[in-house]
Amino acid sequence: MDKSNAISAFSALSQETRLDVFRLLVRAGSNGIASGAIGEILGVKQNTMSANLTILSNAGLIRKQRQGRSVRYFADFDGVRGLLAFLMEDCCGGEHMLCQPVIDEIGCNENSTANYG
After folding, report:
1. What is the pTM of this model?
2. Mean pLDDT for back-to-back runs of 10 residues, the chain (117 residues)
């Protein structure tokens, strides 16, 4: 990821609804969430949600997959990894153990499972 892509990702996340959508999709993991369910869960109108999903998608933070007549959205973990790698690439002046608490904090919680629409 380069600086321009990172700025685009941060810009996408700097709006409350989009941040809520992104966090919801991260929690959903590989199950993703049906497009209509995202708006229902967050209480956002469909046309507003559509615009927000497009911005997040263009920023490389989420992806969609058509399933028959519906669309399911997922956090794009490759994009998230790219953003985190960009932020941490020069971390700690080469003292990698100083970064370990950050790595531990962002690790997956195996006890958490989410099932949305």
Report:
1. 0.82
2. 94 97 96 95 94 97 94 94 84 77 70 53
